Give the backbone structure.
Amino acid sequence: MSNLGQQLQEARSRLGFSLKEVADIIHIRPEYLGEIEENTFNIPLPTVYVRGFVRLYAKFLKLNQDEMVELFNKRHAQIEFSSEVSADRESLRETKSLGQFTLPHADSHEEGIERSGGSRIFERYRASDDDNRSPWIYVAGIGAAVILVFAIVFSVRLLFFPTAEDPEDSQTASASQPGQTPTPQSRPAAAVESLREELIGLVAKAPVYVYVTQTKDREILYSGRLESGERKSLIRDGEISIACDKAENLIVEKGGIPVDLKGATGKVQFLID
């Protein structure tokens, strides 16, 4: 059975096209089509692009695209495997080449150093195994030393420099002493209440169109249709105007509390201060 490149070349020849004519029609470089027909696929592009070229070329030649892509996948796997084997052989060849180099025997070094009066130094170097240690041993040692230093500093700080008390805690503690008036916590409560007042809730009992603006600057806070059961939360800044087409379908909440719309129905517009 002919390979992928042969099948493509034969199909092109039957249709009477040259590589240049096909390249102009399907917009693929003729040299790429030539690599495909040669079954070498030496194309400097990612595999996914080359696979797409094969599919497009097969489609133009009225061939089964899936079968052509399958042939490409098999051929590509063969090429990849051959490349890996060649790389392994080259690596092995380099290793063997390096293995031909032999180091002088240690005795010759020892003798040379002894003659120069340094035999004691040589023995100390030969007995040392520092060069065989992993560099990670030194990294781990440095890390342990840093952690130990931080632990000592933290312990000393806790013993001699206690953490300062929170101003609010100190106020509360001082106020709890006999004979002193407790400090009022009015500001946090006021801030919470102010936030509640700025929060406006819109709840649709049934479909209703709502248009909300701020009175002072006419900024639109919300404009749209709320479906049944839908809820919309808004943050206002001062007085707002709310207009709706069916007031009976809308619940307005101010700070979580429903606002009395006084039985309004139909199209209405009202202000909330």
